[in-house]
Structure formats: C-alpha cells, structure tokens
Amino acid sequence: MATLYAQPSKEWVIPAKPKPGRKPKRDDPVVDEEAASDSKAKKVQNRAAQRAFRERKQSQLADLQARLAQYEQGEIERNVALQNVAKKLKEDNERLKFENEKLREESGKVREENLSMRNRLRELQEEYLAYRRKMEPNASHPDLESSLLPFVLCIHATSLQAQAKSRRDAFINPYHHS
C-alpha cells in the first residue's frame, strides 16, 4: 500500500516568537566605520555624563547632609538653652512661692499683734481715763480725752513701725542679726 500523504523534502525549524521589548542583539553587526565610531563616542559621552550626574548628585547629598547636621546642632543648642531658662524659671517660681508663704505667715502674725496692741491700747486708754476720773472725780475732761488719743496713737504707731522694720529686715536677711 502506498501512502497518500505528502512528504516534505526538507525539515523546517520555526523560530520562537520574539518577546516584546528590546530587540535582541544581532550576532552579525553591520560594520560601518562611521557608525561604529559615532556609537563609541556616544557611549563615552554617556558615561561621562552619567559620571558627572552621579558626582553632582553625591555633592548635593553631602551638602544637604551637612546642612541637616548644622540645623540639628542649632536645634540641640536652642533646646538646651530653653531647658536652662525653664529650670531657672522653676527655681525662681519655687523661691517666690516660698517667699510668698513666709510673707503670708508674717502678715498673719503682724495682724494678730496689731489687733492685740489695739486691744491693749484701748485697755490703757480706759485705765488712764479711769485714773484721771479717780484723781479728779468732779471734773469732766473731754478735751483731755480727745487730746491724749492722738498722742497715744502716735506712740503706738511708732512702736508698730519699729517692729515692722525689724521684721522686714529679719525677713530680707535672715542670717544678719542686728
């Protein structure tokens, strides 16, 4: 029996489809002296341009890093200065709170003493007037009473001023005893 199929006379090889993208480099380059020298010159120029670009980029990066370090150092110095100011303000605040408390205590003591002295002054005035009445029972001395009051008040005020001054001096310089 004879075959009815056609037989190819040669074996054909179908090449694989090329992938999309760059074209594959050919093994058989067209040798053209001018094209080859232009291509080499272009490659050299591209390498030099790329090197210059990298150097510029590196220089810019170094400059930015130096500026950043300078800014960070300035920021650190400003933070230290602010912390010192805050510390001093806290110390001043504590000192002022302490002084304020001492002044409040001192003010309370002065008020109590003032009230006590006023009461004592009234008692002395009453004793004096009783004594005067006893010495001169028939004479009424309203002028004497009114004339003595400023004198007694003046003595009392002078006494209070002296006490206040000594307290103030003791508070201002507690280690100096005069």
From TrEMBL:
GO molecular function: DNA-binding transcription activator activity, RNA polymerase II-specific; transcription cis-regulatory region binding
Segments forming domain BZIP: 42-56
Keywords: Nucleus
Pfam families attached to this UniProt entry: Hap4_Hap_bind
Region described as Disordered: 1-57
Chief site of localization: nucleus
Coiled-coil stretches: none
PROSITE patterns: BZIP_BASIC (PS00036)
Any one GO CC term of the record: RNA polymerase II transcription regulator complex
Cellular localization per UniProt: Nucleus
Protein name as annotated: BZIP domain-containing protein
Origin organism lineage: Eukaryota, Fungi, Dikarya, Basidiomycota, Agaricomycotina
